[in-house]
TrEMBL record, chains A, B, C, D, E:
Residues 26-74 form the SAM domain. It comes from the Eukaryota. CDD domains: SAM_Atherin-like (cd09583). GO terms for cellular component: nucleus. The lineage of its organism: Eukaryota, Metazoa, Chordata, Craniata, Vertebrata. This is SAM domain-containing protein. PANTHER family: ATHERIN-RELATED, POLYCOMB GROUP PROTEIN. Pfam families: SAM_1. GO terms for molecular function: chromatin binding; histone binding. It comes from Cyprinodon variegatus.
């Protein structure tokens, strides 16, 4: 997955307007839509239960995703490595550009 | 959130007199008022349950907030990153000035 | 255990065709067969429960295996040290050759 | 709290004779008396339940006190930072003098 | 405890022949006998429950002993620091001599 395209893909599928492409502005529902859109509909509900909005998503570390959401380990590993980590990398790189 | 203003904001809303602005002197009730004042009324009670006064608040690390209070992960991440960490930074900087 | 022979052994016993020798292409069932083939039939089911496919297997760290699968500590230590770690080492070395 | 006085205070209140001032020689009951004497009577029982004598006390790390005793987080943070850590520092400094 | 004598003591009390003095060759029952022989009969059963043989014992880290065996914290701290750590140190030193 190429970071930028992951964001474009999700923004298109989540009907986000351009001002809300940045995860900083995502509501809890946007996070749930994003996790669903990238292929983990069964795990998405846990993000609502734990009240993870975009700002919280950007603060999550590996262990928070693996043990703090009560989701299965296999999907948790992929959600963190392929999506959350990439989203954070893209976000914090943008900050420094 | 600008550190100093967070403290001023909380001291004004908590009716703290000037000698108690420093978290070192906060009682458990002051901590509960502070967590409520900065936007987390639902999570504030957990600080009373775990008997966190100002001195204990200054000793908390990220993982203590995320796993030791039995509060939701999203709010826990923000309480730590935006408030407790900032409070500690301000407090320990004051010490060295 | 010599890394390469562990992979050859497992591919032979799992009826994997050559294009699927790399753990990247293993399904959850391939992972379960692999854990069974290397001597841990009782622990193999936990990999299915947690939906660990080959890609997730390559992302697992020591603590994930020891605490995230609810398997006994003795077998967990050996599965990680002798097999998962070796598989990852072989896989990521191949990447850089 | 000044380390040496903490030890003197506790030895006086625990009726320890001089040969038992060093935590190395404390029994589980001495540890319970010490935790009570320094202000945590409600948490002291947990040290008996977990069979912590002086030698074990000197081996405890921050996380062991916070998560291994099933005591409230606020008192746990203070017991570790103000007492156990100080006791260990004093003890291991004595070793090297 | 002097490492070498701990091993000699245990080998004598466990009726191990010389070829099995190295923990690498210990069965789960040998580990249980060893933990009993060094003074922790109540904790020894947990090593059987978790299927810890000599090879697994050599792979255990501090946190595995403290949280993975469901034994009391005081004895766990001593078992790790005085025995398992010493056994590992002796074993891996032998490897490099």
């Amino acid at each position: 997955v190429e970071p930028q395209s992951d964001l474009l893909f999700s923004s298109r599928h989540m009907n986000l307007d351009s001002t809300r492409v940045s995860p900083v502005f995502w509501t809890v529902s946007d996070v749930v839509s994003y996790i669903t859109a990238v292929g983990f509909p069964e795990q998405a509900a846990a993000f609502r239960t734990q009240e993870i909005d975009g700002k919280a998503l950007l603060l999550m570390q590996r262990n928070d995703v693996l043990t703090g959401l009560s989701i299965k380990l296999g999907p948790a590993l992929k959600i963190y490595e392929r999506h959350i980590k990439v989203l954070q990398k893209t976000h914090f790189e943008d900050d420094f550009c």
